[in-house]
Amino acid sequence: MDLQHLEEWMIRAVDNELSEQQWQELHDWLRAHPEWLAEWEKWKMTKLPKESFVYPDKQQLYRHRLVWVKRLGQIAAAAACLTGLWCLSKIFMPQLKYPEKPPIGLSQPAEQQAKPTLHRAVQQPDPAAESKESVAATWPAHPAVSASAHPVTSTNMDGSEGKTIVHPAREWTRPVDSTVFVLPPLSALHPWHHQPATDLTVQYPHPSIRLNQPADAEAAAKPVLSLSDHGSGTLGRMILAVAHTVNDLHKIHESLFETRHIHIELQKEND
Amino acid sequence: MTEKEYNDCVDLYADGLYRFTVKNLRQEEVARDLVQVSFEQLWKHHKEVAFQKAKSYLFTVAYHAMIDHLRSMKLRHHEPLQPEAFVQQPAVDWETKRILEKALNELDEKQKMLIMLKDYEGYRYEEIAGITGLSLTQVKVYLHRARKALKRSLEKLLVF
User: Fold this and answer.
1) Which of A78, A85, A90, A164 could form a disulfide with A136 if both were Cys (CB 3.0 to 4.6 A apart)?
2) pLDDT tens digits, A165-186
3) Contacts of A233 (CB under 8 A, 6+ apart)
4) Which residues are registered as beta bridge partners of A154?
5) Residues on chain A bordering chain B, Cβ-to-Cβ distance under 8 angstroms
C-alpha cells in the first residue's frame, strides 16, 4: 500500500465501503506502521455522530382512512364479542321464565269475560232444603247457560259424569248490571288445601266450570269452593274463595297469583 | 404499497427525513414543510412505489426539494442549531461536536447532503447516486472532498 492509496483507503474505511479483506489489509498495515495511527484517528473524526430527531407533526402525515378502518374494526370486534356472549348465555344460562299468559277467561275482552261476583242471594235458599245433588248456578249472559230445569250432563275431572240440575227453588237471580255467580252464604274461610268431593257444576261457555262443594256436613260449613276446569286442559285447578275480611281477600289474591289459577274478582259480601 | 405500509413509512422514516432536512437547511419550519411534501409525494404515488423502496424515494424527493429550496433562497448562513433542537445526544465531546458542526456548514450543499446521507442514513455509494442523480464516480469524489474538508477544519480548530 502506498501513501496515495492510503488516504483513499482510510476515507473508504470511514465510509464503511471497504471489503472484509481490504479492512484486514488496512489493519495489518497500521499495525506495521503505528506512526500512521494518529492520521487514522483524524479521519475517523470526520464521521458525523448520530443524532436523533423527532418529527413533531406525524399525525398530519398519517392517512386517516386507516384510523377509521381501525375504529370500525374495533366496533365490529366489540359487536362480535357481545353477540358471542349472548349466544353463550342462551346456551348455558337457564331460560328466563316469562309471565304466564293470562288464562282463558281473563284474556278475553272485558265485555266477553264473565266476572263472577259473589253476592248474598236475594232469595235465601233454605239450608235444610239444600241437597247433596249438583246445583247449577245460572249464568244468564251466556247462551250455554240454562236457567231451566233441564238436567245437563257434564264430565268431571276424574272422568265420571255428573249431572247438573237446575233446581227452580234455588235459582238465584242476578242483579241487572252485573254478572253474578251467586252462591249460598258461607260462614268461614276454608283452607286452600281442602279437597272437596262433591260436584257443583256451573255451566260456563268455555270451558265448563264445575264447583266442587264439600259433601260432608262439616265441610259444608266451610266457604271455599274449588272450580276445576276439565275442558281444554290448558288450565289448572281453579279456586274460588270467599273472604269475609279484606285482609283475607288480599291473602287469597296473593295465593291465586302465585299459582296457576284463574284470578276471579271477588267482592266482599256486605251483610 | 398499501395504506398500512404507507403509515408504517411515516413511523420508520419521518424522524430521519426530518433530521436530514433540518440539518441541511437549519430551518425547522422549512424542514417540516419539506418532510410533509415528501410524504405527500409518496402517498400520491404509493401504488407505484414498493415498500422496500420507500425510504430512498422519500430521501430523493427531499434531496431535490432541498436543492431547489437552497438555490432559490441562496442560503449560506452558518449559525448552528440550538442545542434544544436535538432530542437525544450521544455521549460525545461537545467541543468537537460544535467544531464539526461548524465545519459541516462550511461545505457546499451537495457535499453536506452526501455526507449526511452517508453518515446519518448509512446509504452506500450506489444508493446515494440513485437518490441524488449523480454518477457513482461523482458521489465518491464529492464524499472524498467532503471528508478532506472536514479533516482540515478539525485540524485547524482542534489541537491534535
Assistant:
1) A164
2) 333 333 334 434 334 344 444 4
3) none
4) A162
5) 8, 11, 14-17, 38, 42-43, 45-58, 60-63, 65-66
